[in-house]
Amino acid sequence: MDITRRTVLKAAALGALTVGAGVRLSFAQAAGGGALEPSDRVFIANEDSNTISVIDPQTNTVDTTINLTSFDEDPRPPFRFVTGGAMPTHAAMIHKPLYHGGIDIHGVVPSPDGRLLATAGRGSSNLYLIDTLAKKVVGNMPNPLASPTTNAERLTSGVLIGREPHEPTFTRNGKEVWVAVRGEDRIAVLDVEAAVKASGGVAVSAVRMYLPTINGPAQVWFSADGNLAFVASQKVPRVDVFEVRPDPQGYSQPQRKVTLDISAADKPAFTPFLKTSPDGTEAWLSHKLADQVSALDTRDAHRTVDTVPLGNLARPNHLEFVQNAKGKAIYVSLARVDDGGPDGAASSQIAVIDHVAAAGSRKVVKTFFTHGREAHGLWTNPTHSLLYVAHEQDELPNTSNAGQTVCSAFDVSDPFDPKFLAQIPLGALKLPSGELRNKKSINLVYVRPGAKSQSA
Q1: Global confidence as pTM
Q2: What is the C-alpha separation between 61 and 407, in angstroms, rounded?
Q3: What is the C-alpha separation between 8 and 378, in angstroms, rounded?
Q4: How many angstroms separate the CA atoms of 174 and 255, rounded?
Q5: What is the average pLDDT across 291-314?
């Protein structure tokens, strides 16, 4: 059977239309080549609602919403989300009496085998683990007050980390997760096995050590061989490089190798995101206030090999490598919202950089609209043929998903000719006392449990 791109796009569109009627069309069959597997899911951290939206990419609809709040664990009013018909604002809800749930759920990253997610509560200073197959928080306990008007589980406290944990990253061997504690000048290094136990209430210390680093660390990412750790900052124009030095059991014994001055690329000193290229030779950094991205050579002296301007007030958030048989590109999500997007609606854009061009000469070759406002996290499927994009702002009135936070899906089987597939409204978490709308999406990851992830 000859499957064309038109067939694929029609199947995806029909899947979104018919899922409510119980019809399930398989985009995986249409796309072929392992583009989709039944267990594939997209996980999105929603910072204002303190939830994680889970999207099934075969239907491009929300599969479930993972609850990281503590609302409705008790039938009494101080514990409820909605009391007497009054629904709090997203900002006020975390200040309700006796709330012990997550605050400002932000970073999220898969383990090397894709079976766990680590997500940080910036405001609650902790780390939660998510079972990607069960789509549940690791360590939740049965609720002794469970009833038709309460939740069946009590939320774990996770692992307390420190002031403003921003982004977690698993080591390449999966033994540890390193958490950038942005409100301080250190990295929390956690034993993953101990973190699972601690989340379940076992009296064990999950934090192996606190690693001193540059002030305001935003994120850690590891070299392809796992031997080096690169640390970016949102307070100083520096990158710390550590030798990981794993012991025979795979646990790190880190030692600082060098601190790099990147002020030429990031004069405002605000680098929230970095990621190493699939071939392992470069680390790309997003300089949000400088409106550009840059690349470091991961080998030897770690010199800057590229600086790519993105335009006035582009405000880059995350970046993703999109590499397949039709080309190699770097996508950069832009927080800036532009008028005149699809169907006249305001929309952010993604900048496309040709990664095949010689180092030092790379540039933006095109942009495309994301079909959402203030684009943030983005991630591809394992074959780099599908892309998902998260957005911070809700859709405007008189648009198809007005008032909703949305995720967008694209066919990127040709990295330089992306095709829009779907705008996916994230809906709400249905609590016993009312609906908590999923809001302000930050990190997004595409996960295939049991398969090698981008952190492997």
Answers
A1: 0.92
A2: 10
A3: 21
A4: 19
A5: 96
Q: How far are the Cα atoms of 165, 228, 254 from residue 244, in angstroms, in the given order?
A: 20, 5, 4
**Secondary structure (H, E, C), the chain:** CCCCHHHHHHHHHHHHHHHHHCCCCCHHHHHCCCCCCCCCEEEEEECCCCEEEEEECCCCEEEEEEECCCCCCCCCHHHCCCECCECCCHHHHCCCCCCCCCCCEEEEEECCCCCEEEEEECCCCEEEEEECCCCEECCCEECCCCCCCCCCEECCCCEECCCCEEEEEECCCCCEEEEEECCCCEEEEEEHHHHHHHHCCCCCCCEEEEEECCCCEEEEEECCCCCEEEEEECCCCEEEEEECCECCCCCECCEEEEEEECCCCCCCCCCCEEEECCCCCEEEEEECCCCEEEEEECCCCCCEEEEEECCCCCCEEEEEEEEECCEEEEEEEECCCECCCHHHCCECEEEEEECCCCCCCCCEEEEEECCCEEEEEEEECCCCCEEEEEEEECCCCCCCCCCCCEEEEEECCCCCCCEEEEEEECCEEEECCEEEECCCEEEEEEECCCCCCCCC
| Residue pLDDT, tens place only, 32-87 | 348 999 999 999 999 999 999 999 999 999 999 999 999 999 999 999 999 999 99
Q: What is the rounded CA–CA span in Å between residue 107 and residue 52?
A: 11
- Report which residue type is found at 117: L
Where are the domains positioned within the chain? 102-309
The b-or-e profile of 137-156 (16+ CB within 10 A means b, else e) is bbbbeebeeeeeebbebbbb
How many other CB atoms are found less than 10 A from the CB of residue 76? 11
**Length of the chain in terms of residues written:** 456
* Residue partners of 300: CB distance under 8 A and separation at least 6: none
Residue 300: pLDDT band with limits 50, 70, 90: confident
* Number of other CB atoms surrounding residue 64 within 10 Å: 14
Q: Which CATH superfamily is domain 102-309 in?
A: YVTN repeat-like/Quinoprotein amine dehydrogenase (2.130.10.10)
The mean pLDDT value for 191-220 works out to 97
Judged against a pLDDT cut of 80, whether residue 298 lies above it is answered with yes
The number of angstroms, rounded, from the C-alpha of 349 to the middle of its chain's C-alpha atoms is: 18
Q: Would the pLDDT of 169 be above 90?
A: yes
Would you say the C-alpha torsion 41, 44, 45, 48 has a positive or negative sign? negative
Distance between CA atoms of residues 60 and 18, nearest Å? 11
Q: What is the token pair recorded at 299?
A: 């080998």
